Amino acid sequence: MNKRLDIEKIVSEMTLEEKIQFVVGVGMLNHKDNPKGKVYGAAGETMEIERLGIPRTSYADGPAGLRIHPDREGDSRKYHTTAFPVETMLASTWNRELLRKVGEAMGREVAEYGIDILLAPAVNIHRNPLCGRNFEYYSEDPLLSAEMAVAFVQGVQSQGVGACVKHFVANEQETNRMTIDTVVSERALREIYLRPFEIVIRKARPWTVMSSYNKLYGKYTSQSEWLLTKILREEWGFEGFVMTDWFAGDDAVKQIEAGNDLIMPGRSFQYFANRGSEVAEIRRAIEGGELSLDVLEERIKAILKVLIKTPAFNSYEYSNSPDLDAHACISYEAGCEGVVLLKNEKALPITAGTPFVVFGTGQLETIRGGTGSGETHPRYTISLLDGIIKRGLAADREVVEFYRKKIEELRGGDYRISYGQWNEEIRPKLPENLFERAELEELSERNEAALVVISRISGEGKDRRLEKGDYYLTDDELELITGVSQAFRKKGKKVVGILNVGSPIEVQSWIDLFDGILLLWQPGQEAGRILADVIGGHVNPSGKLPTTFPNHYADVPSRSFPGEPADNPSVVSYDEGIYVGYRYYETFRVEPAFEFGFGLSYTDFEYSDLKIERDGEELSVSFNVKNNGGAAGKEVSQLYVKAPKGKIDKPRIELRGFEKTELLQPGEEERLTVRLPVDEIASFDGYRWIIEQGDYEFLIGASSRDIRLTGRIGLRTAGGDL
Ligand code: GLC
């Protein structure tokens, strides 16, 4: 029960100094000059005003799991949390119910560890595969991003804690992220980059929003009244509060004036010698009359309106012992539905007892997620190899021992991934081509199949590199794959690639060397169990791509990434406009390696009986999906809409809805219905949202290119306005 608090009264009783300090966080926690936070490892806190009954409130990351330190000085117990699959993998499930369950579990851990606001989800767009934080974002498509985030926020907030939708807005790169100026057409801003925030705010009412580091049209987003007051509050009715990203912006007074309520984490001490504390800046502005007390009090009220809902304000007795075993099951379940089967020429599943070999150091140095504020501290991470062995699959024991010893030797005794700041100076990439051809020949004699693990890691603060070892394979990865492929295939034996990556890599030049490719993404702590159960056939993969794997990096439409001048970008212009991801590839007929929405199954599905009906201001699109194959499975069916030629150009198709079947047994059929509000097919013409008159084509696809059913409906709206 939320304590009844008279916010007006509280604010009236605050001293001026308290008012000034309250809109600034208490500073970077656990810093040498700063006391430890209420929860060690949290990212920030707001100040306590005991005489007014205002407690400290705590904020912690992140999208793949609650990030707090697992160890505390002088305390023998552990404060581990659950490492869930990264957001891109969660989006690959296309399963709203699962996202809600993950949100509930994560929200429970937030509450039980004494945190009030979870700094997630992130809904920035996969504009370019090289963005270092793509793993922390859902998709290249705004609707899929939004629907995943809505379910997640509802899950988190159902636990009585707040979510924080970030990074608002147009923050699609890490290069010079704190100063880069994003220039983008208002149409692309509204239809692609603002859209996920708008839908989440309207449908899930997140308690908070985090403004981003970058500038938009020359102004820091955290200092933009157009964004934070006009759009966020006046147009969308946002009722929570806005916090900055950590140390974002360059003017605390402008942030407060623009509608950024809370400045995080607060420079209450000289953490950043180049900038004075924001409290001093705000005090000077109030005393000098530059900033009105009314505006300051408005920000405080916005913060308090949310904080009175927090566990801290309601003296929640948190246990420090959430049910990590139950949450491990949810992490596993989400991971199983997020795996995407990209290629399978009778290679998978590997039936029980079939002897096979696992190549690649990533089998032990398994990447559960990315680095930076999106990292996690789980009790364990099940490596791919441990999962395979635990599941009793017949992995070649000699090679298992070889890898364990080799990695131990190469790492000097510690092959766990150190999740500090990811860079190869600290942790050089290991060699992969560790076998002579004769050894591969011998292994291909005694084994029936081979897996080759390719893993990649990236993180906050820097973008990925268009180089071998990152976007491209290294020479010795390619040599290993080529050697294994030749040795096994000439005996008619199958070779499967396992991609343990957080964002697309180049695949076109080597996918023909494989009979199967399984995209494992970065699956969190249950990684090895997930892989073992998918390759062993206990789980039928049902994931579909939330982002395109391009054939060539040169095909990627965001050619201006990461901005100009190339040696030290200060501005990035989103010249591709709305043509992001499949909107570009499908409209300009650029062949991808694997398209948006693509994913195979161990079974087949047949679609039939499409009906499109108009029910007032809503369209109802229903159709049957039947499991036509021999294995139980789930299907993600996607609704794309092709608009008539009208006043403004449009992508050839746009995702306008999707549904996922239950687990269908062979022969079983389910009727799916996608509900589509008519106004959701509108386009922004630069001034307003319009719906072009004419016939709309409705495409039901198993992917954006594998269209199974089509239908048409004429839309006539008065005057073409919404
Ligand atoms: C970081 C990130 C943001 C995170 C915050 C607190 O710099 O940009 O996503 O929530 O700081 O760690």
What's a concise summary of this model?
By secondary structure, this protein is of the alpha/beta class. The longest helix has 17 residues. Helix 4 crosses helix 5, helix 5 runs parallel beside helix 7 and helix 13 packs across helix 17.
Overview of the structural elements:
This protein has 722 residues and is of the alpha/beta class. The protein has 18 helices and 26 strands. It is globular, with a radius of gyration of 26 Å. The model has no long low-confidence stretch (mean pLDDT 94). Bound molecules: alpha-D-glucopyranose. The site of alpha-D-glucopyranose has 8 residues, from loops.
Helices, by number, come to 18
Give me the CATH superfamily of the largest domain.
Glycoside hydrolase, family 3, N-terminal domain
What hetero molecules are in the model? Answer: alpha-D-glucopyranose
Rg over CA atoms: 26 Å
Strand-helix topology:
Layout: H1 7-13, H2 16-22, E1 44-46, E2 57-60, H3 87-91, H4 96-112, E3 117-118, H5 142-157, E4 162-168, E5 181-183, H6 186-193, H7 195-204, E6 208-211, E7 215-216, E8 219-220, H8 225-235, E9 241-243, H9 252-258, H10 278-287, H11 293-307, H12 324-338, E10 340-344, E11 356-359, H13 384-390, H14 397-411, H15 437-446, E12 449-455, H16 475-489, E13 494-500, E14 516-519, H17 527-535, E15 549-550, E16 571-573, H18 582-587, E17 592-594, E18 605-615, E19 618-627, E20 636-642, E21 654-660, E22 669-677, E23 683-684, E24 689-690, E25 694-701, E26 707-715
Parallel strand pairs: 2-3, 3-4, 4-6, 5-7, 5-16, 6-9, 11-12, 12-13, 13-14
Antiparallel strand pairs: 1-2, 7-8, 10-14, 15-17, 18-19, 19-22, 20-21, 20-25, 23-24, 25-26
The structure holds alpha-D-glucopyranose.
Alpha-D-glucopyranose binds at residues 43, 61, 119, 166, 245-246, 373, 460.
